[in-house]
Automatic annotation (TrEMBL):
Keywords: DNA-binding, Repressor, Transcription, Transcription regulation
GO molecular function: DNA binding; DNA-binding transcription factor activity
PROSITE patterns reported in the protein's UniProt record: HTH_MERR_2
Name of the protein in question: MerR family transcriptional regulator
HTH merR-type domain ranges (all copies): 12-80
SMART domains xrefs: HTH_MERR
Stored Gene3D superfamilies: 1.10.1660.10
Length: 120
């Protein structure tokens, strides 16, 4: 899964290709960058390079605008999404097992010592 995310975040598309993929003008794309809705990487010569994630984001922005949302509303939506992702904690498989085990014990009226697991 990480490899797929890495491939999607690799900046490989120049603005001309992104324009063709999204049907947006260079001016629109640069405006969304100014509004901090998309953040392309830059080459040594300061050319913008976009990733698949950036292209997806631009298409989402285009759809939101077509539905009547304002740039400010889209900005708030993305900021809220970013905050939610930061608040979400990744649980390991061991954490999930421990939580489920404790919930089953509580539902059955049993108690166990912390860290104690049943022996089957």
């Amino acid at each position: 899964m990480r490899e797929k995310q890495l491939r999607r975040s690799k900046a490989v598309f120049p603005i001309g290709t992104v324009m063709k993929l999204t049907d947006l003008t260079a001016r629109q794309i640069r405006y969304y960058e100014e509004q901090k809705l998309v953040a392309p990487q830059r080459t040594e010569t300061n050319r913008r390079m976009y990733s698949l994630n950036d292209v997806d984001r631009l298409l989402e922005i285009k759809d939101y605008l077509a539905e009547g949302f304002s740039i400010q509303a889209i900005h708030r939506f993305y900021n809220r999404s970013k905050d939610t992702k930061q608040d979400t904690q990744q649980l390991t498989e061991e954490d999930v097992r421990r939580i489920l085990y404790n919930e089953f014990l509580a539902a059955g009226g049993f108690e166990s010592a912390p860290g104690e697991y049943p022996r089957f």
